[in-house]
Amino acid sequence: MSTIQLYIQQLKEKGVKVTPQRQAILKAFLDTENKHPSAEEIHLEVIQSFPGVSLDTVYRNLNMLKQLGILRELNLGERRVRYEMGSDSHHHHLICTQCGAAEEIHYCPLQFLELDKKNKFKIQSHHFEIFGLCEKCSNKGGCFDE
Length: 146
Hints:
This protein has 6 helices and 5 strands. With 146 residues, it is of the alpha+beta class. It has 2 domains: 3-85, Winged helix-like DNA-binding domain superfamily/Winged helix DNA-binding domain (Arc Repressor Mutant, subunit A, Orthogonal Bundle), CATH 1.10.10; 92-138, 2-Layer Sandwich (Dna Ligase, domain 1). The strands form 2 sheets. Strands 4-3-5 form a 3-stranded mixed β-sheet, with no helix packed on it. Strands 1-2 form a two-stranded antiparallel sheet.
């Protein structure tokens, strides 16, 4: 089963109607070169197949997919929100302040702080992003993805 089919199956299991436009939004995540697209970037992908789909429709669907746990909303230090698929994988990001590239960190730096043990605090969720310059930008070059 393809990745898109897995997400479509999840929507069906949650009782959500799978419209062609929703399928196009899901497919846009797989087609875009950007691992963390914005709503505007998703919209640009979707209107290639469905020219009548508005940016508002994309936002509404992204919000619904986020509420269902299919997407995760990211704040990568920009004025606009970015999204990523597969919100169940726990990871964080290194974000370049010059080119905006985001590289995933597949371990949790929070575990080293042991806040739950030291402060007797039950952590339910957290976000951890580190901002700086990627290797290429610090050498006056491009970004992570090149």
